[in-house]
Input
Amino acid sequence: MAASITITPRAQPRPRWLGWFIRRYPLGAVAGLAILTMGIAAASATWLAPYDPLAIDFLAMFSRPGPGHWLGTDAFGRDVLSRMIFGAQTALLVGFFASLAGATLGGVIGVVSAYFGSTGDLVIQRLADILISFPLIILAMAIVAILGTGTVNLIAAIALSFVPRAEIIVRASALGIRQTPYLEAARALGAGHWRIIFRHMVPNVVAPYLVILTAFLGQAILLEASLSFLGLGVAEPTPAWGLMLSGAAVDFVQRAPWMAIFPGLAISFMVLAFNMLGDALRDALDPKLRT
Output
């Protein structure tokens, strides 16, 4: 009797996630491309900027946008375009490290609090509720007043402001994971608490973590600009978008409106891009929102 031959159909290759994301969420993809472009420009500021952002030229004070200075100059004759390109470094540096530190610390606290529960969880949640009752800018201003000004202290102040918000979001996801069968199986096999937390719970809250991290990036850039505008962030002559909106830009807004218009547009554009990317990632990573 002839042996039967079973032919297994060849598995179809799964579509690449990036290509699917671009087709399914084009606005999010455009926002991601804009953020990537801004990041490349900030990293290449030394070569892209046409002038030294700190160079003072009193002969070119309040020059209108034109071939010599594409976005004009400020009250000290400094090129606005060059200061905006270097200001992107400050915005992305503060935004990335502040959001990463705040989302990570808050996420870890949220997972640990959800796993152990009991009185510690109750105390942490009430403290988080108290901190969330304050607007982000007020909380960040209070922390800066305690720590002092400077780039490092600014990053710490913004990061600490994000911690309670990240903790509540991640804890909500971790609560649903705590009673799952595979965690019960891990406990039955003798796995320790911290192994269960970091090996089994943390990987399952990565999706909400990435979403809040992206959302925090836009908020951190806005907070950095707001605090710099109020004189609580980076100080002159460091190029920063919020700093460019304060001081001379306010005094000479009628004489040289480009000093305030272009930095304001840059802040609005970047915050909008991060928010659009965060919304797209939330829809893409949440199975309940996918079709």
Q: What stands out?
A: The chain has one domain: 25-45+70-285. DSSP finds 13 helices and no strands in the chain.
